[in-house]
Design a protein that fits this description.
By secondary structure, this protein is of the alpha+beta class. The protein has helices spanning 14-24, 37-44, 46-51, 81-91, 98-117, 147-162, 176-184, 249-271, and strands spanning 4-8, 56-61, 64-72, 132-138, 166-172, 188-190, 195-196, 201-208, 228-235. Strand 2 and strand 3 form a beta hairpin.
Length: 272
C-alpha cells in the first residue's frame, strides 16, 4: 500500500501500541478473551515489548499505527502462554472480576467434560522443529490494504536472517479472513482440532515451508471441524518430517491444575 511503512518496534511506540491493542482485533472472533483488556495485553503484547522488541514489527499508515506483529524466535526461552495467563490471573485478581471469573469457570467445566469424553483440548505448542511463534493484529481498515501480508513478510525476513528452523501461530478457525490470509502466505492445515477451553470451539493446525524452499509437506489425514482455533505451524525443516504430537497431555494437566487451584482460592476468598 502506498504510504505504508513497516518497521521494528521502538520504545516511543509503546503507548500508541498499547492503545492499538484494544481496537486492532475489532470484528474478529478473538476480539476479546475474558473481557479485561489490561490483563489480556499482559499476556499477548507487553511481554513481547519487554523481552523481544527486535522481533516486534509495526505498520504505520498516515503516521498512525495500523497493525503489529509480535514475534518470538525461541518459544522455549520465552514465558509460555499458560504461564503468562497464570501470572495475569494473580496480578489482576481476575477471579474477583465477574466476567473473567465466569470465563475461567467455564474453562474448568470444559476440562471436566473433555476428560469425560476423552476429547483433546488446545494447549501450548512445544516442538523444537518449530521454535518460533508469532501473534499478529491489524485494524479493520488495514485488513484489505495488505498490512497483514507486509508484516508477515517482515517477520519471514527476520526468520531467514536469524536462521530459524520454523515458526507456528494460532488463530480461531472461525476467523475466516485470518485463515484465508495465512493460507495465501503459504500456511497449510495440519493436525486435529482440539477444544479451546471456555470458547466451546475447536482447533486445527497449519504448516508452511515455502519461505525457505524446502520440499513437500506432511498433511494429517484427520479432517478439521468446521469451527475452532487453528494452530498454524510455519516450518523450515527438511522433507520427511515426522507427524507432530499435538496432544501434549503433561502441559494440559499442569494448566488445568493451575486454573483449578486459582479458582478454589477465589471461592475461599469469597467465603472469608
Amino acid at each position: 500500500m502506498r504510504g505504508m511503512e513497516n518497521r521494528t518496534f521502538a520504545e516511543a511506540d509503546r503507548a500508541e501500541l498499547r492503545e492499538l491493542f484494544g481496537r486492532a482485533g475489532q470484528g474478529a472472533p478473538s476480539e476479546s478473551l475474558w473481557g479485561h483488556q489490561e490483563s489480556e495485553a499482559a499476556v499477548n503484547l507487553t511481554p513481547y515489548m519487554d523481552l523481544e522488541p527486535d522481533s516486534l514489527f509495526v505498520a504505520v499508515i498516515d503516521k498512525a499505527l495500523a497493525g503489529y506483529l509480535c514475534g518470538c524466535l525461541d518459544s522455549r526461552a520465552f514465558p509460555s502462554e499458560s504461564r503468562r495467563i497464570e501470572e495475569a490471573i494473580k496480578k489482576y485478581r481476575l477471579m474477583l472480576r465477574p466476567k473473567p471469573a465466569l470465563f475461567f469457570a467455564r474453562g474448568l467445566l470444559d476440562v471436566a467434560f473433555s476428560a469425560i469424553r476423552r476429547r483433546p483440548t488446545a494447549t501450548d505448542f512445544d516442538d523444537p522443529r518449530w521454535p518460533a511463534h508469532l501473534h499478529i493484529n491489524v485494524i479493520p481498515q488495514g485488513r484489505s490494504a495488505g498490512v497483514g501480508a507486509a508484516l508477515m513478510n517482515k517477520w519471514f525476513a527476520r526468520l531467514k536472517e536469524t536462521g530459524s528452523q520454523g515458526c507456528y501461530l494460532q488463530t480461531l478457525v472461525q476467523n475466516d479472513r485470518a485463515v484465508r490470509c495465512f493460507e495465501r502466505m503459504g500456511f497449510e492445515k495440519y493436525g486435529p482440532t482440539p477444544l479451546v477451553l471456555a470458547f466451546d470451539i475447536t482447533a486445527s493446525q497449519y504448516i508452511n515451508r515455502q519461505w525457505c524452499g524446502v520440499g513437500d509437506l506432511y498433511r494429517d489425514a484427520s479432517e478439521p471441524q468446521k469451527s475452532g482455533k487453528a494452530k498454524l505451524i510455519f516450518g523450515a525443516n527438511a522433507a520427511g518430517v515426522q507427524r507432530l504430537t499435538t496432544c501434549l497431555q503433561h502441559h494440559q494437566l499442569r494448566e488445568h491444575l493451575v486454573v483449578l487451584v486459582l479458582f478454589l482460592d477465589w471461592i475461599r476468598t469469597l467465603q472469608l
